[in-house]
Amino acid sequence: MNKEQAPPILLLPINLFGSNKTMGSSNNKSRMWKTPFTVAFRCRLPIISAPMAGVSGGLLAARVCKAGGLGMIAAGHFQDISKLEKEIQIFQEEMKNIPATGTTTDDRSHSQHQSADLSIGFIGFSALSTPNGWKDYEYILKHHRPKAVQFFAPSIIHQPNDGLSNVQLAHEYNTQFIAQVGSISEAKEAIRHKVDAIICQGSEAGGHGLRRELGSSTMALASQVSKMTSIPVLAAGGIVNGKHLASALCVCDGASMGTRFWASKESTGNPKLQQELIKDNSCDDVVRTTMFDQIQNELSSIMWPHPYHSVGALHNQTSLEWEGKTAQELQNAIDKTELLDEYKSAQKASDPCVGWAKSIISRKPMM
Question: Which residues constitute the domain of residue 279?
Fold first, then answer.
C-alpha cells in the first residue's frame, strides 16, 4: 500500500457496534457520542488526533475536525513560530467553507469562524524555553484564539520568577488546556492546576513518554485517573481501531490516537516511513526504549530529558544490536565507533532499518 492508497481521515472506520459506517459519512454525520469530553470540547466524536511533530499539520487537523473529532496541529518544540502559523493558515483554508462540527462561535467574529476548532499541541520542556517562547505562546493564544492547547513533557510550566503558568495564560484567552500525563503524580499536578482535560499516555504509546518502569499501562492509568477527577480523561497508547476505542470508553471519556493518524494520507510524515507503519507487524516487533534518544541526543541541539527520553519503536537493526545493553556500553560505542555516522546517513535516507525515524512508528493500524 502506498501513500496514495492510505485511507483518508474522512473514511476512518469506527465499527464500534459492528457497523460499516464511517466517520464523515452522510448516515453518521449528525450523530454525537455524548461523553464528558465531547460535551466540554464541543465535538461529535471522543477522539483526539495527537500532535505528532513533523506529522500533524494543518490539513490533518482540519480533516479530523471535519470528521467530528478534535484535530491537533503539532507546534512541537516551537522554535519557529512562522512554521506553526503556516500550518494554522492551511487549517483555516481547509475549514473556511466547512461548518464547524458541533462548535459555537461564542464571542468570536465571523472572520475567526474557521479557527473555532483550532487546537495546538506543544512539547513542554522546549516550547517555552527560548527567549521568545512565552511571548510567542501568548501571541498564538491572543491572535489565533485556539479552542484548546495541549502540553506534555511536562504538561505544567511556570513563567520565570513565579509568573503565570501555561494553564493560567491559556485560560486568560478562554482557551481550554489539555495536559498529557504518564503517571498518577503528573495527573495530580494537572488536576491541582485546574486543567480542562487529561490525556493518560500509557507505556504502549509510540510517542515520547515516561520510561516503562516509571509509567503505567494505558487502561490502568486512565481508569485510575478517571476516579480522581470529574474533568474529561482520555486514554492514549496502543489505540488504533474502534474496538480499542470501545475499550477506552469503558474506563474513561475518549482516546487520543497518534500512529493511527500517521497512516492517513493527510499526514505530513515521510512516505517511506509510512510504508513501514502499514506493514504486517505484530506486537512482538515493538519495543519501548531509551536507546534511540541516547543516540539522537548526540545529534540534536534539543535533547529529550529524563524521564521523557523513551519511545515506542519497531525493532530494527539498531535496536536488535543494542537493546538490553547498558547506557554506558551504548555511549562507548557512540564515542568510539562510526555508529553516529551510520545513524546520520540512515536518517538522511529515511532508512528504517537503522535510523531514528522508525522508532516513531510504533503500531500497525488495523484497517
Answer: 273-360
